[in-house]
Amino acid sequence: MPAPIIPTHRKSQRSFPLSEVTQTAVTQATGKRKSAVARVRMTLGSGEIKVNGRAMDEYFPREALQIMIRTPFDKTETLGRYDIDATLNGGGVAGQAGALRHGISRAIEKLDGAQRTTLKKAGFLTRDPRKKERKKYGQKGARARFQFSKR
């Protein structure tokens, strides 16, 4: 009996047999938040997360951000099963952490299509569309005006 075919992300037309995926496949996904972009490579391993060549707890020293990044693994009960190698560009620390969580969620969904509903309900597959609003001419900022003077 051939190995069962698991569905991958809609944009990707490839489907891998389950046996191939669990042994050698490297799953790549992109996550975004604000102006930060995370390119995530996920392989079967011991649960090590490397960000720009450094350990996650070194790159993100704040415990809240580390917890946020691990939540896709907690929800899908795959903590410690995959190694993550991520490259982050742009944005600030919180934006990068959000982008990494989005990328990890997409990679898990790509690898195991059955986890899609769990990740979707938690809101991890939806890209947060909020960005910084641009400054308008004749104003101090995006919404702030210069102080009004009657005379």
Notes on the structure:
This protein has 151 residues and is α+β, with helices and mostly antiparallel strands. The chain has a domain at 18-119: Ribosomal Protein S5, domain 2. Helix content is 33%, strand content 19%. It is built from five helices and five strands; from the N terminus they run αββββααβαα. It has helices at 18-23, 56-59, 63-76, 93-111, 116-122; strands at residues 27-33, 36-44, 49-51, 54-55, 82-89. The protein has a five-stranded mixed sheet with strand order 1-2-5-3-4. The longest helix is centred in the C-terminal third of the chain and has 19 residues, at 93-111. The model is unreliable at 16-21 (pLDDT under 50).
| Helix proportion range | 25-40%
What is the topology, as strand order, of the major beta sheet?
A: 1-2-5-3-4
Radius of gyration: 19 Å
The beta-strand count equals 5
Q: Overall mean pLDDT score? A: 88
How many helices does DSSP assign? 5
Predict the CATH topology of the domain at 18-119: Ribosomal Protein S5, domain 2
Order of helices and strands: HEEEEHHEHH
Coarse shape = elongated
Largest sheet: 5 strands, mixed
CATH class of the domain at 18-119: Alpha Beta
Based on the coordinates given, report the CATH architecture of the domain at 18-119. 2-Layer Sandwich
Structural class: alpha+beta
Beta-strand residue fraction: 15-25%
Uncertain parts: 16-21
- Cα separation of the termini: 87 Å
Q: Any key phrases for this structure?
A:
about 150 residues; elongated; 5 helices; alpha+beta; five-stranded mixed β-sheet; Ribosomal Protein S5, domain 2; about 35% helix; single chain; about 20% strand
